[in-house]
Amino acid sequence: MIAWNELLSALALVLVIEGIMPFISPKGWRDTMLQASRLEDKTLRTIGFASMLIGVVFLYLMR
After folding, report:
1. Membrane-crossing residues (predicted)?
2. Contact, 2 vs 8, CB < 8 A?
3. Cβ atoms of residues 29 and 21 within 8 Å
4. Tens-place pLDDT, residues 44-63
């Protein structure tokens, strides 16, 4: 069973990683988000699913 400390550490790391691009390049990040907002729901779901799947595989390989 995962410890709360590990879960909160993982969440904190996600927040750090998510904050890198808006910090380094706010204009580039904003432009990317505008482009993403124009994508169809199906495309966004596919990208999200692929991202989750890659993350799960990566976690499996690391453990």
Report:
1. 7-24, 44-62
2. no
3. yes
4. 999 999 999 999 999 899 88
Residue 24 CA to residue 5 CA, distance in Å, equals: 29
What is the pLDDT at residue 63? 80
Q: Identify whether the C-beta of residue 21 lies closer than 8 Å to the C-beta of residue 28.
A: yes
Q: Tell me whether residue 29 is exposed, middle or buried, using C-beta atoms within 10 angstroms of its C-beta: 0 to 12, 13 to 18, 19 or more.
A: middle
Instruction: Sort 22 into a burial class: Cβ within 10 Å, 0-12 / 13-18 / 19+.
Output: middle
Residue count (the chain) = 63
Could you tell me where the DSSP H helices lie in the chain? 4-24, 26-37, 41-62
What was the pLDDT predicted at 2? 67
